[in-house]
Amino acid sequence: INKTQEVFAEARSLAERLGINLNLPPLFVDPDKRQCPFIARQALFVTVDGSFAPCYNLAHTHSLYINRHLRNESSYTLGSISQSVPLAVICGSHVSLFSRLQSMKEDVPWCGDCIYSTQNCYYVDNNESDCYGNQPGCNECLYSTGFVKCLFD
Fold this sequence. Notes:
Structural class: alpha+beta
Number of helices: 6
Helix content: 25-40%
Number of strands: 5
Number of domains: 1
């Protein structure tokens, strides 16, 4: 932690000297301050093939290493531009997802503070669901913590 604080201080000093706006991630997650950057801006992510996803993280299938385990994230799309269904109807059918993501603190668990996340917990291997029963599971979303910066930032 001390080394990271030193590097951050050096980066801030250099950025200030060069007139660069620097936005560093937090050193520790505050679960009460988590928020979905896309929901906060009432935005969706549109993939290259025209599919709508709730956010960048859910727009593509990928793997990451977090909290001492490998996590496989599957894409989760809401619909596509190619559908003849209006976007309002597509989003309306996913209103529970949007509602849940607006109140992450209460409705989405944060696995980073859970002792089971490093003990081979069933819910940390992928984003199919979380221990609250939410689908997809946003329980280890690094964008919601500010550790990974969103395209908006």
